[in-house]
Design a protein that fits this description.
It is found in: Cell membrane. With about 800 residues, this protein is an alpha+beta fold. It is built from 25 helices and 23 strands.
Length: about 800
């Protein structure tokens, strides 16, 4: 019986090849998107799930409660050791210190080699908590100046020579001996690295990091992990942590709340540096479902439209003894055959597109037929799509009464089928229009971001790292200024808008207590304002100095203190436990120090040479081809032991919005796919309708009907469907995108033109598709149409 079902299914597919092609293409495209989205979701959900007892592994994080709540994926440097000594909750506790873009150097074959790495100072217990096994050597990180490296790092630095026993110099200051080689880490980990150094040596890298009494601040560089003992609940641990705040930070208004973050959340919580919000994963899942659903709607639409042409077939089968269940499974088998073909097409599309997806999302997703989860997903999707797309057409076709079917008296069924097809088209149009509204709103927001006045000049500014905070830094600045094509140079803590931030408590106007809000520290020399085009609204610029003497504050600082800009001048300000203090000499116009999704922070600018991290070099872009090599030559001559690099500030600023740009690209792709699938369905449906109404079209043309009249005859129904779908899609699109825009303190609005543009676009796409098929039918020779009839 099953073999017979498949034979008939193949005959039907051959007989209706054009409609089968449309269904296979539409379902294939939708399922391909579903496979890719499933693979992306599986990729992200699989991060760090391979560690032993991963459900008991946590990272200590901090909520900083002031006038607002800030989140830090770290605790004070002294926290880890104190917690390990004070409480038995942790089976293992380990600290690491991330040293980004550090320099390691060693001699090989008489040649001095240098590499830039992201190293980790780690306590030896780190490798008890996380499953990163050794392949050779031993873990001696409990001793000073020892190191572990991965197999890939060993091959990169030492080739085929054994790495164990080799030494290298870290940051041109500290020597480390390699005592072990780690197996290469899995791709899906957020706590990995390539070089691990003894944490007992971290004080040589940064004295404050290594102090056992370092409770005065937080740096994201210090991470503390714990594997709790079996049976210990995170709430039990968090209940004792307020005692640390009271004991070590009782005088601070920057109230800390120490929390435990599960290992499974590290990848998904953007508050603590997660790569992708968990909501983004579910949005992807919903998008994948709707793309498959849209393709299924196409199938149902075409199948119900074709149903009227198969009434006599059903009538004959029923007269010959076929039961309704047999007919239902016959038509379901036809659907299953098309779905199987669609899956073959889908896997071909997914395999071909996957490299571009990995490049777009910065992932390393693979499609492996040996992956059981992919097989389970494919089988479940195949079954669901078969019944979702084929159940209703199967019930409709198998439900024909044989006498009515043979006589062709199924007007009531035809009417119901037409109403169903209208509903399905409306559903497709709603999905497409919501996606289009999202596309327009996100595009407008990205345009707003690109055109927004940031309050400073980011064009033609090259950011180059400093390599010392001494006389060499000053000398190199002077050499930069003498370079043809260089207009201005400033040495600073960071650009006006930068990921390099220092939020700190401060005291104002000789008050004994810190303010209830924190300020952003911007270390900069006296050329900072002119280099970045920042305007003064009151007072004067800083005088040149190597140490903190004077301050500039922004308008937001004055506003938060409730003082007019002119009245801020001469007031006293101090921070970092009164270590740095001086008087306010100027107020600058507000500039965006964070992405537009955040408010402008209160900030102060002051001279502090020991905190300068970057040169900001304003250049003449017409001379960039000669200026950039000249800057590199000067920098490399001054710091031959370092590795030179630079970045244009506008490119760094654009990186703030990588997530938005990625989302824009995603919605462009998905909107295009949804519209393409919908247009394929409309093309097939209108083609079927034109074939069914060939005689009517011929008679109308013989009686003088014009092409435009016939176009209107077919188009008016879709015109009404577009408006009905718009009435439902517009409120849904407005609600969803309004919620998205709420993530931004500064954003473009949603205007009536957003909906007008979306309606025009969808109308043009739909009517072009319908118009093409209808025009083709209307231009046909009526005599041939009537003769064929």
């Amino acid at each position: 019986m099953l073999n017979n079902y498949f034979k008939i299914a193949i005959r039907v597919i051959r007989r209706s090849a054009s409609y089968a092609l449309i269904n296979v293409s539409g379902l294939g495209l939708g399922i391909a998107c579903a496979i890719l989205i499933f693979s992306l979701i599986s990729y992200h959900l699989g991060f760090d799930n391979f560690h032993h007892h991963s459900d008991r592994v946590y990272r200590f994080v901090t909520e900083e409660h002031r006038d607002a709540v800030n989140y830090a994926s770290a605790v004070p440097p002294a926290f880890g050791k104190t917690f390990r000594d004070d409480y038995p909750f942790g089976e293992k506790v380990a600290r690491i210190c991330v040293a980004e873009e550090a320099i390691i150097s060693f001699e090989s074959n008489g040649e001095q080699k240098k590499f830039k790495v992201d190293a980790r100072f780690a306590e030896p217990e780190f490798f008890d908590i996380f499953n990163f096994p050794l392949v050779s050597g031993a873990n001696h990180l409990h001793q000073a100046n020892k190191a572990l490296i991965t197999e890939a790092a060993a091959r990169k630095y030492f080739g085929n020579d054994p790495a164990v026993g080799k030494t290298f110099r870290f940051q041109n200051e500290i020597d480390f001996e390699i005592t072990g080689v780690l197996r290469d880490f899995p791709i899906r980990t957020d706590v990995g690295g390539s070089i691990f150094l003894s944490y007992t040596s971290v004080g040589q890298y940064n004295e404050w990091y290594g102090r056992d009494d370092a409770w005065g601040g937080i740096t994201e560089s210090i991470q503390t992990y714990a594997r709790l003992r079996d049976g210990v609940h995170p709430a039990d641990v968090e209940a004792v942590l307020p005692a640390y705040v009271k004991k070590y930070r009782d005088q601070s208004k920057n109230v800390h709340h120490y929390k435990l973050q599960p290992l499974a959340d590290l990848h998904f919580d953007p508050r603590y540096g997660g790569r992708i919000p968990e909501s983004g994963v579910w949005i992807l899942a919903v998008v994948g479902f709707f793309l498959v659903f849209t393709a299924c709607l196409n199938f149902i639409n075409l199948a119900t439209a074709q149903a009227m042409g198969r009434t006599r077939e059903v009538g004959v089968r029923k007269v010959m003894g076929s039961t309704r269940p047999q007919l239902f499974w016959q038509f379901t088998t036809e659907t299953f055959s098309i779905v199987m073909l669609a899956f073959l097409v889908a896997f071909g599309i997914a395999t071909g597109v996957l490299p571009y997806i990995n490049e777009l999302f910065s992932t390393q997703v693979t499609l492996q037929l040996s992956d059981p989860s992919l097989w389970i997903f494919s089988i479940v999707t195949m079954v669901v799509v078969t019944f979702l797309a084929g159940a209703y057409p199967g019930m409709v076709l198998s439900g024909f009464r044989p006498v009515s079917a043979l006589k062709g008296k199924l007007q009531d069924l035809a009417s119901r089928s037409l109403n169903l097809r209208r509903s399905l088209i409306i559903a497709q149009l709603i999905i497409s229009q919501v996606l289009l509204i999202g596309l327009i709103v996100i595009s407008n927001q990205m345009k707003y971001i690109r055109q927004a006045d940031l309050g400073f000049d980011e064009e033609a500014v090259v950011m180059i790292p400093t390599a010392s905070n001494d006389a060499k830094m000053k000398t190199l600045k002077e050499q930069f200024l003498r370079t043809p094509g260089v207009e201005k140079v400033s040495v600073c803590f960071g650009a006006p808008a930068s990921r390099n931030n220092w939020s700190t408590s401060f005291k104002f106007d000789n008050r004994t207590e810190s303010e209830v809000f924190s300020g952003q520290f911007k270390g900069a020399d006296a050329d900072y304002l002119s280099t970045f085009g920042i305007d003064l609204v009151a007072g004067r610029n800083l005088v040149p100095s190597d140490s903190v003497r004077e301050f500039l504050v922004n308008e937001t600082m004055a506003s938060r203190l409730g003082i007019a800009p002119e009245e801020m001048l001469g007031r006293h300000l101090s921070f970092n436990g009164d270590e740095f203090k001086g008087h306010i000499v100027g107020v600058v116009r507000d500039f965006h120090d964070q992405p537009l999704r955040s408010q402008i922070n209160p900030l102060f600018i002051t001279t502090s040479m020991r905190h300068y991290n970057s040169y900001a070099v304003k250049i003449n872009m017409s001379q960039a081809a000669t200026v950039l090599p000249a800057l590199e030559k000067l920098w490399s001559a001054t710091y031959p032991e370092r590795i030179y690099e630079y970045a244009f500030l506008d490119n760094e600023t654009a990186q703030f919005y990588e997530t938005e740009q990625l989302m824009l690209t995603m919605i462009r792709v998905f909107s295009g796919i949804a519209l393409f699938i919908g247009c394929m369905g409309l093309y097939g449906l209108v083609s079927f309708m034109s074939v069914r109404r060939t005689k009517e079209i011929g008679i109308r043309k013989v009686l003088g009907g014009s092409v435009a009249h016939i176009l209107w005859l077919f188009g008016k129904e879709f015109y009404h469907l577009i408006l009905v779908a718009f009435a439902l899609a517009a409120p849904a699109g407005w609600f969803l995108m309004s919620k998205w825009l709420e993530l931004y303190e500064y954003h473009a609005g949603i205007t009536v033109w957003t909906f007008a543009a979306e309606l025009v676009v969808i109308a043009l796409i739909v009517l072009t598709t319908v118009g093409y098929v209808t025009t083709k039918a209307a231009l046909a020779n009526p005599a041939r149409a009537l003769k064929d009839e």
